[in-house]
Fold this sequence. Notes:
This protein is 6% helix and 34% strand. By secondary structure, it is mostly beta strands. The protein has one domain. The N terminus is likely disordered.
Amino acid sequence: MLACPACAGSSASGGAAAEPGSPAAIEAPAAHDANLAGARCKGGPGAPCACRQKNGDLAETQPPDADHKRFEIRLGAIGGGATLDSPTLGHFTAGADETCYYIDVLPATTQQVTFTARAATKEGGIAPELDLAEYGPKGPWWYDILSVRCSGSEGRCNRDAADAWSVEAKTRKRGRIEPCGSTVISHLHWDTSGGVGDRELGMFRDFTVDFTMDVKRYATEFHPGATECVPK
């Protein structure tokens, strides 16, 4: 179900990359054209939300209503900044530090999403970070859906690290990390405009991941890791 067209396309080609242009302008952390949801998002319109502590901080004190499912977006990019864009979900930004947003999404809908990390300096490289999780009110639980990491040469993203992440991602059933979640990730691929020096081994100056997020109608029922969710 997962594909990596970039691995066979432009981002897999050898040869020297073009010289980078001016450093990317890093947007201040904020959400635009997005409906932030829940008690963790109280900083004002578009302001980043308070990040959930992954160990023990499970319950949403203001959970989604019966007609929506809640998702957690964590993004950042060491060495620069990151954006997550969707025509239906909105535009979310972060700098080098991890930034969190919480949104409610209608079940039985499909979202097109693009995650982009850009270096802030000409030859600094980038280490992209994106995590998506789905809330399971029955537990309550959180289901890890997607994680994007690319850390190779000097802790920054390069061709080898991008390929390794892509290979691992293609092993997941229905594209998601946690099989008990109800969201399917598909059409996943990465690309880059190039990097410093040799494109095969040099650090990328940017890293983009496109994917489709299909939010299923059925409610989550089992705890993360439950054997009932593993395809027989």
